[in-house]
Amino acid sequence: MFGKLFQKQTVKEEKVYAPISGQSQMVTDVPDPVFSEKMMGEGMAVTPDIRTHTVVAPIDGEVIQLASTKHAFGIRSKLGEEILVHIGLDTVELNGEGFENLVKVGDKVKVGQPVMKVDFDFISKQGKGIVVPIVITNTAEDKFSFEWSELTQVKAGESVLFTSTLK
């Protein structure tokens, strides 16, 4: 009788929020074939307001990757998604200049928690793209289905980009 009452609830669905404020777009529209051809996985992207300086966690989870050049980070969600937030295009070439990590690998983060400070004005002046792709790098496992939000102005940590469901 009490078996179901005390069973551990398993997460079946998660919402992935915008990690930065700006204009959302489909990942297929990112001007870089690594993202637009979904080589890294399914996802969306946000072109940030250049006055924005803080990138936040798009989902609750654990930080599993911080690029040594500070241009990208990865979070594993409770559903098992491995979400990569890649800040700008060709920004690896900046060798960390214009970026400041606010977390470390192994940290648990919550939606909206600041993860990185970014100087988008500096990035833009270096001739690098400022679009921020948000992709699920383990979509090849075919464990998830996605419902994409409408393209619109989004607010960091508040606007849902997509919903993932465990198949």
- The helix/strand class is mainly beta
Q: Determine the mean pLDDT.
A: 92
In spatial order, strands of the major sheet run 9-5-6-7-11-3-2-13
Major β-sheet profile: 8 strands, antiparallel
Q: What count of helical segments does DSSP give?
A: 3
Strand content: 35-45%
Count every beta strand, where a strand is a DSSP E run of 2 or more residues.
14
Helix content: under 10%
User: What gross morphology would you assign?
Assistant: globular
Uncertain spans, ≥5 residues at pLDDT below 50? none
Nearest-angstrom radius of gyration?
A: 16 Å
CATH superfamily descriptor: Glucose Permease (Domain IIA)
CATH class: Mainly Beta
Here the CATH topology equals Glucose Permease (Domain IIA)
Distance between the ends: 28 Å
Which CATH architecture? Distorted Sandwich
**Overall domain count:** 1
Along the chain, the helix and strand elements come as HEEHEEEEEEEEHEEEE
Topology diagram in text:
Blueprint: H1 3-6, E1 13-17, E2 22-26, H2 33-36, E3 42-48, E4 54-56, E5 61-66, E6 72-77, E7 82-86, E8 99-101, E9 108-109, E10 114-118, H3 120-125, E11 132-136, E12 144-148, E13 153-154, E14 160-166
Antiparallel strand pairs: 1-14, 2-3, 2-13, 3-11, 4-10, 5-6, 5-9, 6-7, 7-11, 8-10, 12-14
GO molecular function, one term: kinase activity
GO biological process, one term: phosphoenolpyruvate-dependent sugar phosphotransferase system
Domain PTS EIIA type-1: 32-138
